Amino acid sequence: MDQPTPQPGQRTVMQQLAPYMNLGTQLTTPILVMGAVGWYADEQWHTTPTWLVVGLVAGIGLGGFQFIRTVRRLTRDDEQQRMKRGNSGS
Fold first, then answer.
1. Which residues contact 48 (CB under 8 A, 6 or more apart)?
2. Of the four listed, 45, 62, 87, 89, which is most buried by Cβ atoms within 10 Å?
3. Which helix H or strand E contains 8, and what residues bound it?
4. Cα–Cα dist 54/33, whole Å
5. What do you get for the CA distance between the two ends of the chain, in Å?
6. What are phi and psi of 64, to 5 degrees?
7. Do the Cβ atoms of 52 and 35 come closer than 8 Å?
8. Where residue 7 falls among pLDDT bands split at 50, 70, 90?
């Protein structure tokens, strides 16, 4: 079956969902990376679990910040798209 071709200026469902599908990765990657850096620092300096905890807390902070920033941007973009569609229909 042929997919309907979107009109100019319209996005397909996958194009609309793609930014949201990346949110999980944006949240977990900083936690894992900073946790690994903390674990490595603990191994080198024999301070277990001090730097692991510091790394995880920093990763949670960074991941949360990036997550919230991205969600706000996506929400703003969606609202702008909705406004465009509402104004073009008048």
1. 42
2. 62
3. none
4. 12
5. 33
6. -65, -40
7. yes
8. low
CA dihedral sign, ordered 39, 60, 18, 13: positive
Residue 66, token pair as written in the block: 């990036």
What is the chain's Cα-based Rg? 20
Geometric angle at alpha carbon 73, from 67 and 75, rounded to 5° = 100
Give the separation between CA 11 and CA 63, rounded to whole angstroms.
28
Contact 32, 62 (CB under 8 A): no
Give the range among 2-6, 41-45, 60-64, 83-87 with minimum mean pLDDT.
Answer: 2-6
Instruction: Quote the DSSP letter at residue 3.
Output: P
